[in-house]
Amino acid sequence: DIQMTQSPSSLSASVGDRVTITCRANQSISTYLNWFQQKPGKAPKVLIYGATNLASGFPSTFSGSGSGTEFTLTISNLQPEDFATYHCQQNHRTPLTFGQGTRLEI
Amino acid sequence: EVQLEESGGGLVQPGGSLRLSCVASGFTFSSYWMHWVRQVPGKGLVWVSRIEMYGSMTAYADSVKGRFTISRDNAKNTLYLQMSSLRVEDTAVYYCARGDSSTPGLWGQGTLVTVSS
Fold first, then answer.
1. pLDDT tens readout for residues B56-103
2. Which of A42, B9, B70, B79 could be B111's S-S partner, Cβ–Cβ 3.0 to 4.6 Å?
3. Most B CBs within 10 Å: which of A31, A47, A89, A96, as the mutation test of the B interface?
4. CA-CA distance, B34 to B50, in Å (whole number)?
5. Do the beta carbons of residue A51 and residue A31 sit within 8 Å?
6. A/B interface, count of CB pairs below 8 Å
């Protein structure tokens, strides 16, 4: 199975900050990498697909980069509604696997 | 409006069985792969299973293989997860999601399964 490791597991930031979350795979997954945003008590939503493509409904303050085994999610100019948990997921092969999540909090 | 509504969760004893359902509305159900993903509250997401549009191809996480069965009824716009030989570690919120073969793109709100004596 492909193991996904996110860092950090939690992150404190302030409105207006720029933050970066890292996701590493234990083998190459090309750009088969998704990011999800999950708010408390809600279902996850696709945020980034194909490592770099922003899903509809999300502002351009979110961006994704990377390929192979290392990926980053960057959020610039943090807004109050961005405080949530972020999960990466490899969609290179089954079993599909997720990182453990990064909780972004004020 | 596109919606997925899960049901069937509840409290079950270890070794017991439960069937989850997910009713889809607002889109052509038979055009999408469907997934089940679970999450222990406060923990990460774990993919459980997927099924292709007509039900002929399925895949499972190793942790549930042989115990869980995914199926769908396109005439009823409904996805199922039959769970048997349940273990305490199967306790989680179970989400259904529509998508393609490798991305659960749109999720329901989940149903809680608690396995406990």
1. 999 999 999 999 999 999 999 999 999 999 999 999 999 999 999 899
2. B9
3. A96
4. 6
5. yes
6. 50
